[in-house]
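Methods — Computational structure assignment.
A single polypeptide chain was analysed. Its primary sequence is given first, followed by the predicted tertiary structure written as structure tokens.
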Amino acid sequence: MWYLLKLNALVAASVFALAGVALFALYALDQARALAAARHRIYERLWTVRKQPLFFANSLAISRSISRSGRRAQVASHFK
């Protein structure tokens, strides 16, 4: 009788251990997908910011700075 109790406890422990490993693997997969999606959103946002022209570097802003100061303004780009 004692032997069957030990055997049942061993079987139950192994079943719960496998279930725990399976749940942990699903959680890790979900977190990896979330990280990949967040990284993709960050890269997409950086790419759209890089593609947009700088506001102070467009021709209207440059011409207004020349007309107000009488000399050409220094326009620096931080995205080079």
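Note: The two ends are 78 Å apart (CA to CA).
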